[in-house]
Amino acid sequence: MAEQPESDKPAEGASKKSKKQLTRNEKIRDFLIGFVGWWIISGLVWLVVTNATFTFPSRLWNELLALFELLFLLLFFLAQLIALILLAFRRGWIALGMLSAIALNLTITLLVGMTQNAFCFAPFFVPLR
Amino acid sequence: MSPVPVLFYVGGVPIYSHGFFLLFGLLAGLGWVWIEARRRHWTKEEVIPITLAAFVGGMIGAKVSILFFNGFEYAPLALNLYAMFDPRIGPGSIIGGVVGAYIGGYIASKAIGKESCSCDAFAPAMALATAIGRIGCFLSFEDALGKPTTLPWGVYVPIEYGGGYLAHPAPLYDILFNLIWFGVLLALRDHKWMQNGNLLKFGVAGYAFFRFFVEFVRNNRLLALGLTGQQLASVVLFVAIVVYFVMNGQRRSTLSPAM
Prior knowledge:
The complex is a heterodimer.
Chain A: H1 14-17, H2 24-51, H3 59-90, H4 92-113
Chain B: E1 6-10, E2 13-16, H1 17-39, H2 44-64, H3 66-70, H4 75-78, H5 94-111, H6 122-139, E3 155-157, E4 165-167, H7 170-188, H8 198-214, E5 222-224, E6 227-228, H9 229-255
Antiparallel strand pairs in B: 1-2, 3-4, 5-6
């Protein structure tokens, strides 16, 4: 039988590193904070972005608005990634909850994607607003 | 050979070959990671967060990298979190997906306290998933398969699929390579030099090497120096990994006692 590779053994310092051993209930609580929290925050931002339909008479202002929207979405995306990484090191179960929420969404996307003739961004993509 | 964009219908709903084999490939890859995890005695406290992070990282990497490969005009889609959950937009790039999965898995490994990389379990899974996923690319005649060819195995691509000529069946080349590569990675997985993340690096380097050459018969956009974005990314990946192996080899020979 093959010996277990060194890299696959749990780190000896792992338990020392973690600040506190969580109880089962605390783990569930943290997981739910991450999972439900992600849906609430992302849902609220999505509602704001999709319902904010400002139009200006000037083309320049409308282009600036579109740029602002793109910038806002990019910052929100980056903020989520940074929060996820920071939480992974400090409150691992909250991060796992967030990660599970994103993974669930992506899984649904892949399942629904089977019914769409969607290639790698081309040629059938439909531009979003 | 005619394109098979729709594999079958379920209650009148079409199931497209591209999406079906993408999902099937990911599931097969996940299954293989599970098998490897059991063989390597991973605990579920390690498997679940690392696999989840690799999956999410891979999906994000695949989409964000489109910005580099296809151009900045794709920014509203590639940099928008919500666009990632839009099934009308395709999955993105395999190379970006591999890099994203690597970063995601690495961060998760560190976060749960593993001091060394445990990502080798993903190396054969990656090759298997790519081989299966490419079946969908071939059946749907994605990107008109490839450049025109007079070789006897050229496949006729109809005009409505962007062709009107016999083309290189590039996805088939990808499938063939990845099946062979899957076998090579399986054969090497217990080798003493292929531990601590080296198997995955070797796997990625091999795919990058192959991808650089297969891009010459594909229809991707040229980015710079007459090369596609995928080729440039492949060169960077391959060189970075070779440099890592050379430096690691030098360090190992310095640390080992003189004979």
